[in-house]
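Per your request, structure below.
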């Protein structure tokens, strides 16, 4: 996705990880690396570390879609809100299918303003970036990748784990004693009433903390953010944590060499 050329494989978690591995090799980036991932990128970064453990020295995951996160949330929701949650998931898939159909027919390229749900549509958009993003989003390959990602990382039709989560489970992730920080926002889920928000928030925070426990040096950092985009709302926290993980990784590697 993004400004890259289209991949020759579907945008499932194993293929995304394969693409990242190929990129790191082709770019001759010195190993090991420290990966920073947000949302689905958090799942992919952890997947990469599980699949290529010797290539990764540290992890920082920003409000990641940790394995079982959706399942943890839906287990504690009362029925009416659970129904709404599930309907929202299905609506997202329907919208992604529509956007792909429109892109394939050239509609997004010809009439981008008609389809704001498929295109870049933020308030006060930067004009230059807005044009670039809309050109990117009008490509059928981009919309196909986004739909595939939704289908791969979204919950199964029965509410169980997604295909990506099941593939991650099969890797039996163990990050040893490497530095690993999960940044978790504590003020999200504003669409839910307070009682539901409290229950779901606790369940999701516990799930993300469990992901950090895959390293004996793993820890969760709570951030008072009303958005999952902590890198936008609290960039200072992200910069500080990444810097700390880099320092911890260097110390660990130096100790192992000595």
């Amino acid at each position: 996705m993004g400004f890259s050329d289209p991949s020759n494989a579907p945008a499932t978690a194993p293929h995304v990880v394969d693409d990242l591995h190929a990129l790191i090799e082709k770019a001759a980036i010195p190993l090991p690396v420290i990966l920073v991932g947000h949302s689905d990128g958090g799942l992919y970064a952890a997947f990469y570390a599980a699949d290529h453990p010797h290539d990764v020295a540290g992890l920082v995951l920003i409000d990641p879609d940790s394995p079982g996160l959706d399942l943890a949330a839906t287990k504690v929701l009362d029925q009416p809100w659970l129904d709404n949650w599930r309907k929202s998931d299905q609506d997202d898939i329907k919208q992604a299918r529509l956007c792909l159909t429109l892109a394939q027919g050239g509609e997004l390229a010809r009439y981008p303003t008609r389809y704001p749900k498929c295109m870049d549509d933020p308030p006060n958009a930067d004009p230059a970036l807005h044009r670039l993003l809309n050109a990117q989003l009008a490509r059928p390959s981009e919309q196909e990748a986004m739909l595939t990602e939704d289908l791969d990382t979204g919950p199964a039709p029965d509410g169980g784990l997604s295909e990506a989560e099941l593939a991650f489970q099969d890797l039996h992730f163990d990050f040893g004693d490497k530095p690993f920080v999960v940044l978790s926002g504590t003020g999200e889920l504003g669409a839910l009433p307070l009682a539901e928000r409290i229950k779901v928030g606790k369940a999701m925070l516990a799930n993300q903390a469990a992901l950090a426990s895959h390293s004996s040096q793993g820890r969760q950092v709570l951030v008072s953010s009303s958005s999952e985009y902590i890198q936008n709302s609290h960039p200072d926290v992200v910069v500080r944590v990444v810097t700390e993980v880099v320092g911890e990784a260097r110390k660990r590697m130096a100790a192992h060499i000595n």
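Residues 13-257 form a domain with the Rossmann fold fold (CATH 3.40.50.1820).

Regards,
D.
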